Protein backbone atom coordinates (compact mmCIF):
# COMPACT_ATOMS: atom_id res chain seq x y z
CA UNK A 1 0.00 0.00 0.00
CA UNK A 2 1.53 3.30 -1.10
CA UNK A 3 0.07 6.59 0.03
CA UNK A 4 1.13 10.05 -0.98
CA UNK A 5 -0.57 13.32 -0.18
CA UNK A 6 -0.67 15.73 -3.09
CA UNK A 7 -1.11 19.48 -2.85
CA UNK A 8 0.59 22.73 -3.81
CA UNK A 9 3.53 24.35 -2.12
CA UNK A 10 2.19 27.88 -2.51
CA UNK A 11 -1.15 29.51 -3.22
CA UNK A 12 -2.22 33.10 -3.68
CA UNK A 13 -5.66 33.97 -2.39
CA UNK A 14 -7.56 37.20 -2.96
CA UNK A 15 -8.64 39.21 0.08
CA UNK A 16 -12.38 38.73 0.82
CA UNK A 17 -12.58 35.79 -1.60
CA UNK A 18 -12.49 32.11 -0.78
CA UNK A 19 -9.54 29.83 -1.43
CA UNK A 20 -9.01 26.06 -1.43
CA UNK A 21 -5.76 24.65 -0.08
CA UNK A 22 -5.53 21.31 -1.89
CA UNK A 23 -4.64 18.12 -0.03
CA UNK A 24 -5.62 14.76 -1.51
CA UNK A 25 -4.66 11.14 -1.72
CA UNK A 26 -5.86 8.11 -3.63
CA UNK A 27 -7.61 5.84 -1.10
CA UNK A 28 -5.93 2.47 -0.61
CA UNK A 29 -7.74 -0.66 0.47
CA UNK A 30 -6.98 -1.81 4.04
CA UNK A 31 -6.01 1.72 5.09
CA UNK A 32 -8.67 3.61 7.00
CA UNK A 33 -8.37 7.36 7.55
CA UNK A 34 -8.28 7.97 11.30
CA UNK A 35 -7.61 11.66 11.77
CA UNK A 36 -7.10 14.69 9.61
CA UNK A 37 -5.81 17.95 11.05
CA UNK A 38 -5.09 21.25 9.35
CA UNK A 39 -2.70 23.45 11.33
CA UNK A 40 -1.40 26.95 10.61
CA UNK A 41 1.58 29.06 11.58
CA UNK A 42 1.12 32.81 11.04
CA UNK A 43 1.86 36.19 12.58
CA UNK A 44 -0.76 35.73 15.26
CA UNK A 45 0.72 32.45 16.42
CA UNK A 46 0.02 28.86 15.49
CA UNK A 47 -2.49 26.16 16.16
CA UNK A 48 -4.81 23.49 14.82
CA UNK A 49 -7.59 25.01 12.70
CA UNK A 50 -9.84 22.00 12.14
CA UNK A 51 -9.70 18.34 13.04
CA UNK A 52 -11.71 15.45 11.61
CA UNK A 53 -12.00 12.10 13.35
CA UNK A 54 -14.72 9.49 13.99
CA UNK A 55 -16.78 12.02 15.91
CA UNK A 56 -16.89 14.51 13.02
CA UNK A 57 -15.23 17.87 12.28
CA UNK A 58 -14.25 20.33 14.99
CA UNK A 59 -13.07 23.86 14.29
CA UNK A 60 -10.53 24.61 17.01
CA UNK A 61 -9.34 28.15 16.23
CA UNK A 62 -12.11 30.67 16.82
CA UNK A 63 -10.95 33.05 14.08
CA UNK A 64 -11.75 30.32 11.52
CA UNK A 65 -15.16 29.42 12.93
CA UNK A 66 -17.87 29.32 10.24
CA UNK A 67 -15.37 29.94 7.48
CA UNK A 68 -13.52 26.66 7.01
CA UNK A 69 -14.68 23.30 5.71
CA UNK A 70 -13.38 20.06 4.25
CA UNK A 71 -15.28 18.14 1.53
CA UNK A 72 -17.70 15.68 3.11
CA UNK A 73 -18.28 12.90 0.60
CA UNK A 74 -15.13 12.85 -1.50
CA UNK A 75 -12.91 10.02 -0.18
CA UNK A 76 -9.28 11.08 -0.31
CA UNK A 77 -10.04 14.78 -0.85
CA UNK A 78 -9.13 16.47 2.42
CA UNK A 79 -8.60 19.98 1.00
CA UNK A 80 -9.33 22.99 3.19
CA UNK A 81 -11.79 25.61 1.94
CA UNK A 82 -11.39 29.01 3.62
CA UNK A 83 -14.14 31.59 3.06
CA UNK A 84 -13.79 35.39 3.07
CA UNK A 85 -10.01 35.58 3.37
CA UNK A 86 -8.49 38.04 5.79
CA UNK A 87 -5.05 39.57 5.26
CA UNK A 88 -4.10 37.90 8.56
CA UNK A 89 -4.81 34.43 7.10
CA UNK A 90 -1.44 34.63 5.35
CA UNK A 91 0.75 31.85 6.69
CA UNK A 92 1.92 28.27 6.38
CA UNK A 93 -0.76 25.59 6.47
CA UNK A 94 -0.10 21.90 7.10
CA UNK A 95 -2.42 19.04 6.22
CA UNK A 96 -1.74 15.99 8.43
CA UNK A 97 -3.48 12.68 7.86
CA UNK A 98 -3.17 9.44 9.81
CA UNK A 99 -4.41 6.05 8.63
CA UNK A 100 -4.77 2.74 10.43
CA UNK A 101 -3.72 -0.40 8.56
CA UNK A 102 -4.96 -3.97 8.91
CA UNK A 103 -2.32 -4.67 11.60
CA UNK A 104 -3.68 -1.73 13.61
CA UNK A 105 -0.57 0.32 13.17
CA UNK A 106 -0.76 4.01 12.28
CA UNK A 107 0.73 5.72 9.23
CA UNK A 108 1.01 9.50 9.16
CA UNK A 109 1.77 11.89 6.30
CA UNK A 110 1.74 15.65 5.98
CA UNK A 111 2.20 18.35 3.36
CA UNK A 112 2.65 22.09 3.77
CA UNK A 113 1.28 24.97 1.69
CA UNK A 114 2.13 28.63 2.10
CA UNK A 115 -0.77 31.02 1.56
CA UNK A 116 -0.30 34.58 0.39
CA UNK A 117 -3.31 36.93 0.57
CA UNK A 118 -3.34 39.71 -2.03
CA UNK A 119 -5.69 42.61 -2.64
CA UNK A 120 -7.21 42.33 -6.10
CA UNK A 121 -6.26 45.26 -8.30
CA UNK A 122 -8.95 45.41 -10.93
CA UNK A 123 -10.87 42.31 -9.90
CA UNK A 124 -9.75 40.46 -12.99
CA UNK A 125 -9.09 37.02 -11.67
CA UNK A 126 -9.48 33.41 -12.56
CA UNK A 127 -11.01 30.91 -10.20
CA UNK A 128 -9.08 27.76 -10.90
CA UNK A 129 -10.72 24.53 -9.98
CA UNK A 130 -8.16 21.83 -9.53
CA UNK A 131 -9.49 18.30 -9.63
CA UNK A 132 -6.20 16.98 -8.23
CA UNK A 133 -4.77 14.06 -10.18
CA UNK A 134 -7.93 14.01 -12.29
CA UNK A 135 -11.47 12.90 -12.64
CA UNK A 136 -12.17 9.21 -13.46
CA UNK A 137 -15.63 8.42 -14.78
CA UNK A 138 -17.21 5.31 -16.36
CA UNK A 139 -17.93 5.19 -20.10
CA UNK A 140 -21.50 6.17 -20.88
CA UNK A 141 -21.73 8.55 -17.91
CA UNK A 142 -22.67 12.15 -18.48
CA UNK A 143 -20.60 14.95 -17.00
CA UNK A 144 -19.69 18.55 -17.47
CA UNK A 145 -16.82 20.85 -16.59
CA UNK A 146 -17.62 24.43 -15.77
CA UNK A 147 -15.41 27.45 -15.70
CA UNK A 148 -16.03 30.59 -13.68
CA UNK A 149 -14.10 33.80 -13.44
CA UNK A 150 -14.71 36.97 -11.52
CA UNK A 151 -14.07 40.38 -12.96
CA UNK A 152 -15.73 43.14 -14.92
CA UNK A 153 -18.31 41.69 -17.33
CA UNK A 154 -18.71 40.73 -20.09
CA UNK A 155 -16.50 37.65 -19.65
CA UNK A 156 -16.01 35.21 -22.47
CA UNK A 157 -14.90 31.60 -21.99
CA UNK A 158 -13.19 29.06 -24.20
CA UNK A 159 -12.61 25.36 -23.48
CA UNK A 160 -9.63 23.55 -24.99
CA UNK A 161 -8.35 20.02 -25.06
CA UNK A 162 -4.61 19.65 -24.74
CA UNK A 163 -3.12 17.91 -27.79
CA UNK A 164 0.29 16.39 -28.55
CA UNK A 165 3.43 18.53 -28.24
CA UNK A 166 1.79 21.49 -26.56
CA UNK A 167 -0.97 22.02 -29.11
CA UNK A 168 -4.53 22.76 -28.01
CA UNK A 169 -7.82 22.12 -29.76
CA UNK A 170 -10.65 24.64 -29.26
CA UNK A 171 -13.82 22.80 -28.21
CA UNK A 172 -16.41 25.35 -27.21
CA UNK A 173 -16.91 28.98 -26.42
CA UNK A 174 -19.11 28.65 -23.37
CA UNK A 175 -18.53 28.49 -19.65
CA UNK A 176 -19.60 24.85 -19.58
CA UNK A 177 -18.28 21.84 -21.46
CA UNK A 178 -20.75 18.94 -21.35
CA UNK A 179 -20.69 15.29 -22.40
CA UNK A 180 -24.11 13.56 -22.57
CA UNK A 181 -22.39 10.15 -22.85
CA UNK A 182 -18.66 9.73 -22.26
CA UNK A 183 -16.48 7.61 -24.53
CA UNK A 184 -12.99 6.30 -23.71
CA UNK A 185 -11.67 8.60 -26.46
CA UNK A 186 -12.82 11.60 -24.38
CA UNK A 187 -9.98 10.91 -21.92
CA UNK A 188 -7.49 13.74 -21.88
CA UNK A 189 -6.54 17.03 -20.33
CA UNK A 190 -8.95 19.93 -20.72
CA UNK A 191 -8.48 23.56 -19.77
CA UNK A 192 -10.46 26.74 -19.88
CA UNK A 193 -9.53 30.35 -20.60
CA UNK A 194 -11.51 33.37 -19.54
CA UNK A 195 -11.20 36.84 -21.04
CA UNK A 196 -12.72 40.19 -20.32
CA UNK A 197 -12.00 43.61 -21.82
UniProtKB/TrEMBL annotation:
Matches recorded under Pfam families: Ig_3 (PF13927), V-set (PF07686)
Q: Which domain of life is it from?
A: Eukaryota
InterPro entries for this protein:
Ig-like_dom, Ig-like_dom_sf, Ig-like_fold, Ig_sub, Ig_V-set, VSIG4
GO terms assigned for molecular function:
complement component C3b binding
**Biological processes annotated in GO:** negative regulation of complement activation, alternative pathway; negative regulation of interleukin-2 production; negative regulation of macrophage activation; negative regulation of T cell proliferation
List, alphabetically, the SUPFAM superfamilies matched: Immunoglobulin
The record's section on Gene3D superfamilies has: Immunoglobulins
List each copy of the Ig-like domain by range: 17-112, 140-197
UniProt xrefs under PANTHER family: V-SET AND IMMUNOGLOBULIN DOMAIN CONTAINING 4, V-SET AND IMMUNOGLOBULIN DOMAIN-CONTAINING PROTEIN 4
Q: What is this protein called in UniProt?
A: VSIG4 protein
Species for this entry: Nesospiza acunhae
Amino acid sequence: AFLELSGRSEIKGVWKDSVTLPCAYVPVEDLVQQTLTWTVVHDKGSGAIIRRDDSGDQVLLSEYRNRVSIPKDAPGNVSLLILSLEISDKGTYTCQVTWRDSNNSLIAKEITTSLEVVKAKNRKRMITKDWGPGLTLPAGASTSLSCEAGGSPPISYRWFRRGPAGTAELLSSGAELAWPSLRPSDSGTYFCEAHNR
